[in-house]
Amino acid sequence: MELIKRIETMIAPVLKEENVQLWSCGFKQENGMKILEIAITFADGDMDIDTCASVSEKISEILDEEDPIDSEYYLEVCSAGAERPLTSMEQIMNACGQYVHVDLLTPYKGMDSLEGYLESVEIDTLKLEYMDKASKRHATIAHNTIQLIRLAVKM
Fold it and tell me: Is 78 helix (H, G, I), strand (E, B) or coil?
């Protein structure tokens, strides 16, 4: 994890210059290849391919110059995606008012997952407005019962 923090620090000036935010940074394996995946967004959550390409070129230059990674890898700079996972409390709090999908460790009223508008986030809970058939309902969900929370596209 120390390497990831170092990489995040190294690329921070590029992200600021390009006016984008780091959503996530980490390594993944795909078809035997080690990939450094850097997911970015604009402040409004959008992203475009030209910005990804520009940021990728600049980050690649920095990583080639400083060479912090001691093995072969591929760099992938991408959009965080429309249905991106919310992995930190800050990301969850910033999603208030947005449509989210929540997978639960403990069922809520017999449901293993809920989709709805994130109304508020408290220290130990979050409040969600969801539809149950044709009625609006409100759920208070304990953070420790959440397996996954991500943005969702409302259909």
Answer: strand
Contact 130, 104 (CB under 8 A): no
The helix (run of H) or strand (run of E) holding residue 57 is: helix 49-66
Q: How far is CA 120 from the centre of its chain?
A: 18
Q: Which backbone phi and psi does 64 adopt, to 5 degrees? A: -65, -40
Distances (CA, A) of 88 to 17, 66, 94, 148, 149: 24, 28, 10, 11, 10
Beta carbons of 119 and 138 less than 8 angstroms apart: yes
Summarised one tens digit per residue, pLDDT across range 89-138 is 989 999 999 999 999 999 999 999 999 999 999 999 999 999 988 999 99
Radius of gyration over every alpha carbon of the chain, rounded to an integer in angstroms: 18
- Residue 58, number of CB atoms within 10 A of its CB: 17
Residue recorded with tokens 């290849």: 33
